[in-house]
Amino acid sequence: MTKYLGLILLVFLMASCKTAQPILTEGKAKDTLSSAVIVDRHYQNAKLFSTLYIKSAVHYEDDKDSQNMTAEIKIKKDEKILISVRFLGITMAKALITPNKVSYYEKMNNTYFEGDFSTLSRWLGTPLNYASLQNLFLARAFEDLQGKTLNTSIDSDKYYRLEDVTNPDITKVYSFESGKCRIIKEQFVQNQKQQSLQVVYPGENAYGVMSLPTGIIVDALQPSGKIHIDIDFNHLTIDEELSFPYSVPEGYKHINIH
């Protein structure tokens, strides 16, 4: 697990062959809507907040290890995200993400990373930016779907399936429930590189006029193996004043992600 701890912090973004089943909360998809209508309905689900605090339980599995941790996620909308991962109450890693910079450190190997999103985009094989990571925690489409060429279909009479066919090297599929077109699953597959990523939102709760996910199930497949991350949102508060302390301890070694 030590090899991936920093990446757990940054994205909770790696998926495997395991198939998590999303909870569908609103009826069936009876008619095939155009992709433009589905995307428009999705973006009408406004996320109205200035700050967001999430306390979560995290279960991590790879081919060799399994761990239970806790994660504290603080978001100042459109400005910064601070993620702290703890094991047995001890902070083991911390990440600070801003629109221009990605930083994290982890105590197990006394290492830290600082860079822009291009490095992580190359590593994951899909474009990343600050909005992508913020959207991950809000149950919004990982990429901006407005104006994209998307094939539309209905999957199992239950939800709308949009597939981005603009890049032949990577398959991108987005699944939406039939009511307000909230996203329930995203899949990114690079067949030639034997890499895949799946993000599933198992449920949601209403907070006034805004709905937020109850958690995130993330699975990743890399040539080096499979990873499964189950994040359960235990406690969530909106628009409280938050602090975002972050500094790399002295003596830590800078690493590169290839």
Account of the 3D structure:
The chain is mainly beta and 258 residues long. 13% of the residues lie in helices and 44% in strands. It contains four helices and 16 strands. The protein has helices spanning 5-11, 35-43, 117-124, 130-138, and strands spanning 51-62, 66-76, 80-87, 90-97, 102-106, 111-115, 150-155, 159-164, 171-177, 183-190, 195-200, 204-207, 210-213, 215-222, 225-238, 253-254. The protein has a 14-stranded mixed sheet with strand order 7-8-9-10-11-14-15-1-2-3-4-5-6-16, with helices on one face. A hairpin with a 3-residue loop joins strand 2 and strand 3 (80-87). The longest helix has 9 residues, at 35-43. The protein is globular, with a radius of gyration of 18 Å. Mean pLDDT is 83; it is low at 1-25.
Give the gist of this structure.
This protein is mainly β and 258 residues long. 13% of the residues lie in helices and 44% in strands. Residues 1-25 have low confidence and may be disordered.
Q: Helix segment count?
A: 4
Distance between the termini: 18 Å
Beta-strand content estimate? 35-45%
Work out the radius of gyration. 18 Å
Percent range of helical residues: 10-25%
Strand order of the largest sheet: 7-8-9-10-11-14-15-1-2-3-4-5-6-16
Give the structural class. Answer: mainly beta
Poorly predicted regions: 1-25
Give the overall average pLDDT: 83
The strand count comes to 16
Main sheet overview: 14 strands, mixed
Shape, please? globular
Order of helices and strands: HHEEEEEEHHEEEEEEEEEE
Search tags:
258 residues; 4 helices; two-stranded antiparallel ribbon; 14-stranded mixed beta sheet; globular; 16 strands; mainly beta; disordered N terminus
